[in-house]
């Protein structure tokens, strides 16, 4: 098996949920399924996700985030202290789509916020890792949210009795996530990813204004935020970490556009992750020039394959773009992946399972062609 740090084909995390699982989740929430019945359906969905990735030829697999409502929802599911929430907690914002899906605005739920001191009831992702580890010989990646992403769940109106400041809240979030990393490492995890889409959201004045209203200006997001990320990562010999940056991904829609340039030097150089998972599937991400800020010891994993539309990229197209990017980072420090997950939440993007598998196979085959 090739070292994880230099793996050329990668996957971001989520996959489309099978209809059986979506229906079962609804029935379970309504009391129509027992926990044992629901877990069996979840297990089958994870088995299916593993098989799909293995058939595609990927050296790295995830559980497809089949056990999650959204990529960041396991925090509120596993930890006490959060108030009322539903799926709109993860979907609110002004979303932009192409002519096939259109734009969509979802209001931030007025009752959304942390209302009590955080206390972990169970581990967030240990179950995910242990189950997948027993069902594949390939490298298993576990995805966790960046701690400062949960600034969305701190409210000046609702949260100050439990946490007078955003900093105090995020310090407890980071502690829970650090303990999760330690547990995953104890269980044998070798590849862990932090998802951090909130950093590119700072590129847009409207979304930046929301985050600044939480109490941090842009400079503090790029200093204290990264400090908390590095606290979560810690120091674990033999464990590879990746850091995923995108501009929003729900129902084939996106939130913001903009080059990485204003963020690149401080994030690329400041985060203690060996692999940078970067969205680059269309012009919204700007050019490859910010890649000059990727330190020599890190690999830039380019998300050149879109999960937002059925458009089928070709090996020739992807190889050409990799060669273009190699003007800024040597080819031996590049890798290839989708630009984001295929189903950031249970809603999923507007593509088919056949499109999904084609895209993953094209990534694996292109990586073999380019790097051997």
SSE series:
HHEHEHEEEHEHEHHHHEHEEHEH
Uncertain spans:
none
Structural class: alpha/beta
Beta strands, count: 11
CATH topology: TIM Barrel
The portion of residues assigned to helices is 25-40%
Name of the top-level CATH class: Alpha Beta
Query: What proportion of the residues form beta strands (DSSP E)?
Result: 5-15%
Q: Calculate Rg over CA atoms.
A: 19 Å
Domain module count: 1
Brief summary:
With 372 residues, this protein is of the alpha/beta class. The protein has helices at 19-29, 35-56, 74-78, 88-91, 126-133, 166-186, 198-201, 205-213, 218-221, 224-233, 261-270, 315-325, 353-371; strands at 60-61, 79-82, 93-95, 104-106, 114-120, 139-145, 191-195, 240-245, 275-279, 299-305, 334-338.
Task: Give a structural overview.
The protein is of the alpha/beta class. The protein has a single domain, classed as TIM Barrel, CATH 3.20.20.210. The protein is 37% helix and 15% strand. The protein contains 13 helices and 11 strands. Strands 1-6-7-8-9-10-11 form a 7-stranded parallel beta sheet. A two-stranded antiparallel ribbon has the order 2-5. Strands 3-4 form a two-stranded antiparallel ribbon. The protein is globular and about 55 Å long. The mean pLDDT is 94.
